[in-house]
Design a protein that fits this description.
single chain, mainly alpha, about 100 residues
């Protein structure tokens, strides 16, 4: 009987290892895709707004926005979003992507 317990334990451990590897791959893929999307927005915003006072003033609000996953939206950040979207109407970026781009400046 102890032999069956050892085989069962080995089987459970191997399945757990496979599940962890799969979740790691899925998480990594999601992070890479999100990074690529925000890189596009970041390159457009950073090249245009590096010295913009409205955008620079929103850095603290952008940090709060990113840190709270969008729950905290400061007035300076809202103003910067509006300003950026007026200056670059063709830019297709989410608020989260813009906030990350502002932090990169």
């Amino acid at each position: 009987m102890p032999r069956y317990h050892l085989i069962g334990a080995a089987l459970l451990l191997s399945l757990a290892g496979a599940a962890q590897a799969t979740s790691f791959v899925v998480t990594t893929d999601a992070v890479v895709r999100a990074g690529a999307a925000s890189t596009d927005a970041t390159s457009d915003v950073t090249s245009s707004f590096r010295d913009d006072k409205i955008v620079q003033a929103a850095r603290d609000d952008a940090a709060s926005f990113v840190g709270s996953e969008g729950a905290i939206r400061g007035a300076s950040l809202e103003s910067a979003f509006l300003h950026i979207r007026q200056q670059l109407p063709a830019l297709q970026a989410s608020d989260a992507q813009l906030a990350r781009a502002i932090l990169v400046l």
